């Protein structure tokens, strides 16, 4: 039996036994927080539990490395939608130690793509279209620096409101310990004191 078949069989029982009722909530995050974090399997349950979060508390966005690679990509759009349409009032970027994006190089992915039947012609088409695969498929060297960079990209976005706090953290995927990299409250406070009086 395939993985999807098993999931669908389980889902049928889940729905028929009304197991969904304990998860009922609204589309608005109760804690008014949107989190960008990594898709790492170890964080699926650990991260919310380590933060004391339950279903309905936050908007959770996941990708490889908790990285914003383009200011007008789907990650930044999701953050803006969470703020403007879904009542989020804070953002938190959470990377993790032992991330697969640390030290990742495009050459490794492209080599594996070729081994899986992607021919050089397709890669050339992307390159000729102006896509810098060496940049797009490359990870980072330091998770703390990557988190700080994503925080900066969010805060500097032309559509991002200046009164919204953006925090940066790194979680240990073994213990759940969180380390604060960027305290968004301090940034908001320092920005408000730098506003010239009229």
Question: What's the layout of helices and strands?
Answer:
Layout: H1 3-16, E1 33-38, H2 43-51, E2 58-63, H3 74-84, E3 90-96, H4 106-115, H5 120-128, H6 133-136, H7 143-155, E4 165-171, E5 178-182, H8 184-193
**Low-pLDDT sequence parts:** none
The major beta sheet can be summarized as: 5 strands, mixed
CATH architectural group of the largest domain: 3-Layer(aba) Sandwich
- Count of distinct structural domains: 2
CATH superfamily of the largest domain: Carbonic anhydrase
CATH class category of the largest domain: Alpha Beta
**Helix/strand-derived class?**
alpha/beta
Strand % is 15-25%
N-to-C terminal Cα separation, in Å? 70 Å
Mean pLDDT metric: 94
How many strand segments? 5
Note the overall shape. Answer: globular
> How much helicity do the residues have?
40-55%
What is the H-and-E element order? HEHEHEHHHHEEH
CATH topology of the largest domain: Beta-carbonic Anhydrase, Chain A
């Amino acid at each position: 039996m395939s993985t999807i078949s098993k999931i669908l069989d389980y889902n049928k029982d889940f729905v028929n036994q009304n197991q969904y009722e304990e998860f009922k909530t609204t589309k608005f995050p109760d804690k008014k927080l949107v989190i960008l974090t990594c898709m790492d399997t170890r964080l699926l349950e650990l991260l919310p539990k380590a933060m004391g979060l339950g279903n309905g508390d936050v908007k959770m966005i996941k990708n490889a490395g908790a990285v914003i690679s383009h200011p007008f990509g789907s990650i930044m759009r999701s953050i803006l939608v969470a703020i403007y349409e879904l009542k989020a009032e804070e953002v938190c970027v959470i990377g993790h130690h032992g991330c697969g994006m640390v030290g990742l190089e495009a050459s490794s992915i492209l080599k594996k793509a070729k081994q899986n039947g992607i021919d050089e012609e397709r890669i050339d088409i992307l390159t000729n279209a102006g896509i810098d695969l060496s940049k797009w498929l490359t990870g980072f060297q330091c998770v703390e620096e990557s988190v700080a960079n994503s925080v900066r990209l969010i805060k500097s976005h032309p559509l991002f409101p200046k009164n919204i706090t953006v925090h940066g953290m790194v979680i240990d995927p073994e213990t759940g310990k969180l380390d604060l990299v960027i305290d968004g409250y301090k940034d908001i406070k320092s920005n408000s004191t730098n506003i010239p009086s009229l």
